[in-house]
Amino acid sequence: MHHRTLGNSSLEVSAIGLGCMSMSGVYGPGDDAESIAVIQRALDLGVNFLDSSDMYGWGHNEELIGRAIKGRRDRVVLTTKFGQVRSPDGKGNLVDGRPEYVRQACDASLTRLGVEVIDLYYQHRVDPKVPIEETVGAMARLVEQGKVRHLGLSEAAPATIRRAHAVHPLSAVQSEYSLLSRSPAEETLPTCRELHIAYVAYSPLGRGFLTGTIHVPGDIPEGDRRHQHPRFQEQNFEHNARLVRRIEEIAREKGVRPAQLVLAWLLAQGEEVIPIPGSKRRAHLEENVGALGVRLDASDLSRIDEAMPAGAAAGARYPDAQMKGVYL
């Protein structure tokens, strides 16, 4: 297993982590027994960087991880997030960055995970109603109390990152980053490099679009929330599928799977970039870890960039309502 240092922390994490969101019914039904097997297989393979949130299944995901890592806590760099809360009317989520909520959310996550300390604690979405200094100040007190080791932000813009980092050093910033979604990440990476903050790339496989398994809309199960995402709809789907076919062709020529190629491309963007592909199946996990053995030279990287340049994808990465809450 290859490792990377998590920003300015002392934590050494696997160069590819495991995003656990999909295990809690986001992309079709989950299977707890298989999900636990995936997490434990990941640990056996040396993947020690697990990513969760208190809103994935509204607590289910943290409880699932807690069961999976019981007796193996010393092998895990455990991360989770707070800040998204259910809307009383059930229409979408709200964001809560109040200091008093930070404390409540952390205590609840610790209980569900069955651990005494969280290695990396993120604010899941920036709350525009609460100054970032107040939220991060409350997160810093969790560090002082020994409940959290390191802090991070998710979907934060460079100016917000700087303000937060001035209150307490951030070890990681997490945002979507893949060949299909490059602009926010590439705008933020210089700030992260300057401040020695790791960049954790979620949805590095474009929510499955870049795996070579989605060719027509019918390949996405009914009830899967990707049907609501602009990139998977109508003309956008057709345009993006043509781009993905170019990546599949390069992967075939390299003798690797498309998922392995795009993960290798991400790893080549810098030592501070740590992708966390999600997986609900052990076979997919093992395929993703195989990306660590893929070597891309300058000509490979240039060809991939030409096949899918920044901004080439059609459609926003979230529905309109959700786009309002990202990159703040």
What's a quick, concise take on this entry?
This protein has 328 residues and is α/β, with parallel strands linked by helices. The protein has helices at residues 32-45, 60-68, 99-113, 132-144, 158-167, 183-195, 234-254, 258-267, 282-289, 298-307, 320-323; strands spanning 3-5, 12-14, 18-19, 49-51, 77-82, 84-86, 93-95, 118-123, 148-154, 170-176, 198-202, 273-275.
Supply the key terms.
16% strand; eight-stranded parallel sheet; two-stranded antiparallel ribbon; 328 residues; alpha/beta
Written account of the structure:
The protein has 328 residues and is an alpha/beta fold. 39% of the residues lie in helices and 16% in strands. It has helices at residues 32-45, 60-68, 99-113, 132-144, 158-167, 183-195, 234-254, 258-267, 282-289, 298-307, 320-323; strands at 3-5, 12-14, 18-19, 49-51, 77-82, 84-86, 93-95, 118-123, 148-154, 170-176, 198-202, 273-275. The chain has an eight-stranded parallel sheet with strand order 3-4-5-8-9-10-11-12. A two-stranded antiparallel ribbon has the order 1-2. Helix 1 runs parallel beside helix 9, helix 3 (99-113) packs across helix 4 (132-144) and helix 5 packs parallel to helix 6 (183-195). The longest helix has 21 residues, at 234-254. It is globular, with a radius of gyration of 19 Å. The mean pLDDT is 95.
Uncertain segments are none
**Helix content estimate:** 25-40%
What is the number of beta strands?
12
Compute the separation of the termini in Å.
34 Å
Number of helices: 11
Largest sheet: 8 strands, parallel
Order of helices and strands: EEEHEHEEEHEHEHEHEHHEHHH
Strand order of the largest sheet: 3-4-5-8-9-10-11-12
Rg for CA atoms? 19 Å
